[in-house]
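Hello Y.,

Per our agreement to keep a running log of every chain we model this quarter, I'm adding this entry. I've kept the format consistent with earlier entries: sequence first, then predicted structure.
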Amino acid sequence: MTVPNVLSLVRIALVPLFLWLVLGPQWDVAALAVLVVSGITDYLDGKIARSLGQTSRLGAILDPVADRLYILAVVIGLGLREIIPWWLAIILPLRDVFLFSLVPFLRTRGFSALPVHFLGKAATAGLLYAFPLLLLGDGTGVVADLANVFGWAFTIWGVGLYWWAGILYTFQLRHLLTTMPPVRST
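Predicted structure for the entry above:
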């Protein structure tokens, strides 16, 4: 159990708290604080893992799982609060469902996942900026208006990059399937 893995587990443990804060008492400031803590720990777990040589297979799984759980939790929360339209709350997780459906094909070549590439990280970062801004934009006043504009800008770019990254992953899988022989079952 490394420090980066503990940080990823903390992020995962904060997901239900975020949902409760957004949907229960609607304490948006506290929910924003959870998102900020999540963003900071997301940055720190990768930075610490690389700088201290604490990268691990578990960490390579936990970090993207935490990212996906936050994206799912936020789109559900913001969708139920009617801060974002339902079509948006559906198309983001739909990309992950699509990529998850490709895992059996990866396994035929001995892989359980494709390496994360920069475009996927940029897309996730854009979305993780967008969601707190959209939540902050669900108010009144100049700050809420600005947060809403910037939140939607990050959302549009984030969704586009998120799906573009998914398409690139599909092309990577196609390349693997055409260039690598299937692994033998034992």
